[in-house]
Design goal:
Keywords: Signal. This protein is 6% helix and 35% strand. The strands form eleven sheets. Strands 21, 35, 37, 40, 43, 44 and 45 form a seven-stranded mixed β-sheet that branches. The protein has a six-stranded antiparallel β-sheet with strand order 7-6-3-2-38-39, with no helix packed on it. A hairpin with a 6-residue loop joins β13 and β14. The protein binds 2-acetamido-2-deoxy-beta-D-glucopyranose (5 copies). One 2-acetamido-2-deoxy-beta-D-glucopyranose (NAG) binds next to loops. One 2-acetamido-2-deoxy-beta-D-glucopyranose binds next to loops.
Length: 551
């Protein structure tokens, strides 16, 4: 074969690969500024089942740009910066009306964690200073009623600052680690009379780098066998939290660079696919970005090392699991990894060099990367269109029901500071992934059936939907997403299930209405109880979602 023929064959092959992909490759997505200022930094975000997002930063940032209503003020002699503060440090953002209102937190919620309980109440844990052992709940408002934070001081056994929470099959949450806490506890406590509420976790000692830590906000996922996969620094284990035993130790992530705070990378558990009735569900974890060893030390002295451009993917259910490494188009630190309704992953926000921490990063990365989970290795990343707002330390991202990704925050400074490099960012933007582009409207499913949104485990569920174009039956599926609690580039409790499809039928012989019958997850281990969003996906284009509650 001549070189010319080989080249043209190669070209043809590339063309084929590219065109096979065009049905789902869009124009790179679109950014929209939703709010120029919500008055606070979006440091922590959680979407609730009323399509409102609870957002908060910290009470010791100084005065925010949003006043508390009705001349309310917080008088707190233990507060570090302002003892009388009449500004808000939390808001409720309404996705549908694009409006927000101030909320009132009493004690410091800085660098805390949380989850949504099975009944839909946000349960936040810990923080700093006077708030480090406090639990706060936020019951979602219904109708036009207002609702606000309720605080329960001293409910945590120890201080929890930079901890990770995860929802358990019994509906409670486990709170893991935090600064100088090599242990875990549960909330609520199952037995208030038990003598031991704090359980030690040696793994957090093993992964604690002196002077840098690199094991804060560990990446935690509930595996399909009921154990927890815990990744900290460059190591991971499978952990039986009931018996307090390490069930399995995974190999260190290759090259051994740290991936957790302050070398903040991120991680997701890839979609759990319930493909056939009795097949075992496999679980894979993807860890991306972070900062090379010693970056934190260098950042402190003003040298900003290029971020890691690698991702490691591991099948945690494999009997002999191994990391498979992949290369991102660019290095990133402090990026968020967001599960999209179709099961792909969006990597968004963050910087190209440095680490998390005050003033410790440079080179904002303005382009999200789309990671297509089922493409062959080497063809998984697509660079998306950029925003013009750097989202550095203390920025967040979450998916909402209409398929957009809401982005907020960024404040690498100790206080609100609107001057200099990377000024405190109070704006909220939306990134619309390319699946929302109008040229995919003909493929987009629209859910038309009213179905019972109270689900039980292992039940049949029929969803009627319409699609303008001819339906490609084997390319339609239903996903179910647990909206996560996002802070510090990690989305706690993020979980996407691809439900088992039992049949797809044409309704009444019409050309555009279909019914897909699926089976809800079989157990609380696969899907801990609570609220999820259900999407119908066709050729990777998702419908708008519908809230359901599984109990
Ligand atoms: C916040 O308030 C400060 C001082 O009052 C002001 O300089 C700044 O422009 C405000 N920023 C925004 C985004 O509203
Ligand atoms: C919902 O759950 C939270 C957290 O467990 C609890 O504090 C609250 O009382 C529950 N609300 C209702 C209405 O049951
Ligand atoms: C993981 O990090 C530790 C330091 O925390 C280091 O000693 C070890 O060599 C690293 N692992 C690899 C494979 O490099
Ligand atoms: C705000 O940031 C600028 C530049 O980054 C710095 O010089 C200034 O001291 C900061 N102001 C406060 C009040 O911290
Ligand atoms: C299909 O036919 C049934 C019975 O005739 C009717 O009740 C239903 O509304 C029809 N559904 C659609 C989507 O047209």
């Amino acid at each position: 074969m001549t070189t010319a023929t080989a080249t043209s064959l190669l070209f043809l092959l590339l063309l084929l690969l590219v065109s096979a992909d065009t049905a789902i490759s869009g124009g790179g997505g679109k950014w929209q500024l939703l709010q120029k200022s919500i008055g606070i930094v979006g440091m922590h975000m959680q979407l609730l089942q009323n399509d409102r997002v609870v957002i908060y930063d910290r009470t010791d940032f100084g005065l925010s740009n949003l006043s508390l209503p009705n001349n309310r003020c917080r008088h707190n002699p233990n507060e570090e910066v302002v003892k009388t503060d009449c500004t808000a440090h939390s808001v409720e953002y309404d996705v549908v009306s694009n409006t927000f209102r101030p909320l009132f937190v009493q004690t410091d919620v800085w660098c805390s964690s949380g989850y949504v309980s099975p009944n839909g109440t946000l349960v936040q844990t810990g923080g700093f200073n006077d708030g480090d052992r406090t639990v706060r709940t936020f019951p979602p408002c219904s109708g036009s009623s207002t609702c606000d934070w309720i605080e329960f001081p001293g409910q945590l056994s120890v201080r929890r600052w930079y901890a990770t929470n995860h929802k358990l099959p019994d509906g409670r949450q486990i709170v893991i680690g935090g600064r100088r806490q090599f242990n875990y506890e549960f909330y609520p406590k199952s037995d208030l009379l038990a003598t031991q509420h704090v359980h030690s976790l040696q793994f957090l000692v093993q992964t604690n780098d002196i002077g840098a830590e690199n094991n804060l906000y560990p990446f935690v996922f509930l595996n399909v066998d009921g154990n927890l996969f815990i990744f900290a620094n460059n190591k991971s284990i499978l952990f039986n939290y009931v018996k307090n035993v390490v069930v399995k130790t995974y190999p260190d992530i290759p090259n051994g660079d740290p991936r957790c705070y302050p070398s903040t990378g991120s991680a997701v558990m890839l979609p759990l696919k319930m493909l056939q009735a009795n097949s075992n569900v496999e679980a894979e974890v993807l860890v991306c970005g972070g900062a090379p060893k010693d970056s934190f030390k260098y950042a402190k002295s003003g040298r900003f090392i290029g971020a890691l451009n690698t991702c490691g993917r591991i099948k945690i259910t494999d009997p002999n699991p191994k990391w498979v490494m992949e290369t991102m188009p660019k290095g990133r630190v402090m990026s968020d990894m967001i599960m999209l309704p179709n099961g792909n992953v969006l990597i968004i926000n963050g910087a190209g060099s440095g680490t998390a921490g005050w003033e410790y990063a440079r080179d904002p990365i303005l382009n999200p990367f789309l990671y297509k989970i089922d493409n062959p290795i080497g063809l998984r990343f697509e660079v998306q269109n950029p925003t013009n707002i750097p989202r550095m330390y203390h920025s967040t991202a979450i998916l909402v029901r209409d398929g957009r990704v809401i982005v907020a925050g960024s404040n690498p400074h100790k206080y609100y500071n609107f001057t200099g490099m990377f000024p405190t960012e109070l704006s909220v933007e939306a990134f619309s992934p390319s699946y929302l582009e109008p040229n995919f409207d003909h493929l987009r499913p629209r859910i038309v059936s009213q179905f019972q949104n109270q689900l039980v485990y292992g039940q049949k569920l029929s969803v009627q939907f319409q699609v303008e174009a001819m339906l490609t039956q084997h390319l339609v599926y239903v996903t179910m997403l647990a909206p996560p609690f996002n802070t510090h580039s990690f989305s706690m409790n993020q979980r996407l299930l691809v439900l088992e499809t039992t049949k797809v039928t044409n309704v009444n012989g019409t050309s555009s209405t279909y019914e897909i019958e699926v089976v809800t997850p079989k157990s609380q281990i696969l899907a801990p109880p609570g609220f999820y969003i259900i999407f119908v996906v066709h050729q990777q284009i998702p419908s708008e979602g519908i809230w359901v509650q599984i109990l």
